[in-house]
Amino acid sequence: MVTKSKKHNKKKDPVLVVVQLSGGNDFLNTVIPFTNGIYYDVRSYVGHKEEEVLPFTKDLAFHPNAESFRELYKQGKMAIIQGIGYENSIRSHFRAMDIWHTCEPNTVATEGWLAKVIRELDPNSDNPLTAISFGKGLPRALAAPGVMATSVDNLDNYGLMTSIEDDVQRMANLDVFSRMYTPKDEWMGDRHESGVVMNYLANTGSGVLTGADMLKDVPRKYKSSVEYADNSIAKALRDVVRVHTANLGTRIFYTQHGGYDHHAQEMPAHDRLMGELSQGITDFLTDLEEHNASEEIVMLVFTEFGRRMRDNGSGTDHGSGGGAFIIGNRVKGGLYSEYPSIEPSEWLNGEDLKHTFDYRGVYGTLLEQHMRLDPTEIVLGNYEQLNPFK
Questions:
Q1: Under a CB-based contact definition with an 8 Å cutoff, are residues 283 and 226 in contact?
Q2: Which of 249, 265, 278, 292 makes an SS bond possible with 66, Cβ 3.0 to 4.6 Å?
Q3: What are the boundaries of each domain within the chain?
Q4: Taking Cα atoms as reference points, which of 125, 106, 103 lies closest to residue 114?
Q5: CA angle 328, 116, 19 (to 5 degrees)
Q6: Which residues, 6+ apart, have CB-to-CB distance to 67 below 8 Å?
Q7: Which pLDDT score, from 0 to 100, does residue 46 have?
Q8: Residue 254 · residue 301 · CB < 8 Å
Q9: Which residues pair with 298 in a beta bridge?
Q10: What is the sign of the dihedral through the CA atoms of 140, 146, 147 and 148?
Q11: Residues 6 or more apart from 230 whose CB is under 8 A from it?
């Protein structure tokens, strides 16, 4: 149900951009409690030295490679959601991401939370570009029987599926989708036994991706002075700007930045990712502003779980409580919720950060206060919200 608000008397429809950090981002090394000695005691290998980090409050600092994040925070464009998570956090990548994608922690659900948003925004599926995912496959968050979204691997090649004429290759890509979202215990050899995946494909099939053909003229129409870096998240965010400024009616954009599962060699890998992510988002916002297209956009950056308190001598293992970011020109920047206690006596299961804010409350905040939607049926309940908008 769409709700009206006096705060949103703007001509442009609100747009949500989601950035998924796949693998479990280390929040403790992203927003660092650099004045607390416990941080250095438990992270002798992956801990960042106090003189290297980028303070933005008297107690917290950004990762050394995230100077662009510090600038966004100083400009009031970044809300940091501390301690985001849920009760009885799961450490399996598949199941944890499924919970974030469906808002259902207790059972395997058949509808993604953003797919339900698409249904509200475009109940008759009039526009296949209401939601677009940039990357291979379609995220579970956008998938539901009878709901259409578009998946684009490479915008310059007109999109993932419409550029594939060979049926064998087409089925191979659908197989990628199925394997991504089928629990291991629902696989029997090469036979796909997942009711969730097969029900989805039976109802929407490869037709869910046909909107990509409508995008073929977008690249040549786009012009910008912003020079994006040559990495996956920068390219995806540039594609978001290219499509958004083409005025094709897209209300939800989904992007992914992979590689955050740092069981080993965390320092070089996470350092690189933090630089790519922070600079990519800054370039994205600059590009939107150059096109006078930034006021209607809000970005959510999330990951499926945090990492454990103690490093393992080379990296960090799957944990629980983490963090998220809400970014945009209409965001009221600052710290939201509470940073989880890093006192050992407060650790969950003797090794994890506790969560301090339910992720469904963050979704509800975005849906009601930005997208003008009633979040109750979408997030499956009523959850405490934040107030991160001007």
A1: yes
A2: 278
A3: 15-379
A4: 103
A5: 35
A6: 54, 278
A7: 94
A8: no
A9: 16
A10: positive
A11: none
DSSP state of 273: H
Strand partners, 389: 331
- Give the tokens for residue 203: 């109802």
Length of the chain: 390
Burial pattern 351-360, b for ≥16 Cβ within 10 A else e, equals ebbbbbbbbb
| Residue range 15-379, CATH number | 3.40.720
Report the distance separating Cα 130 and Cα 337, nearest Å. Answer: 32
Q: With CA atoms as reference, report the closest residue to 248 among 355, 132, 113, 387.
A: 132
Q: Which residues pair with 17 in a beta bridge?
A: 253, 299
Closest Cα partner for 197 from 186, 207, 209? Answer: 186
Contacts 24+ apart (CB under 8 A), 267-275: 267/45, 267/46, 270/26, 270/29, 270/46, 270/63, 271/63, 271/64, 271/65, 272/65, 273/21, 274/30, 274/63, 274/65, 274/66, 275/65, 275/66
pTM (global) more than 0.90: no
Give 21's strand partners.
257, 303
CA distance 167 to 90: 37
| Coil, strand or helix at 136 | coil
Question: Token pair for residue 384?
Answer: 């405490």
How far does CA 59 lie from the centroid of its chain?
26
Average pLDDT, consecutive stretches of 10 residues, N- to C-terminus, the chain (390 residues)? 40 94 93 97 94 98 98 98 91 85 89 97 93 89 91 72 46 55 40 46 46 80 96 97 96 95 88 97 98 97 90 87 95 97 93 94 98 98 97
What would the DSSP string read from start to end of 289-331?
Answer: HHTT--TTEEEEEEES--B-SS--SSS--B-S-EEEEEESTTB
Find where tokens 């600038």 sit.
71
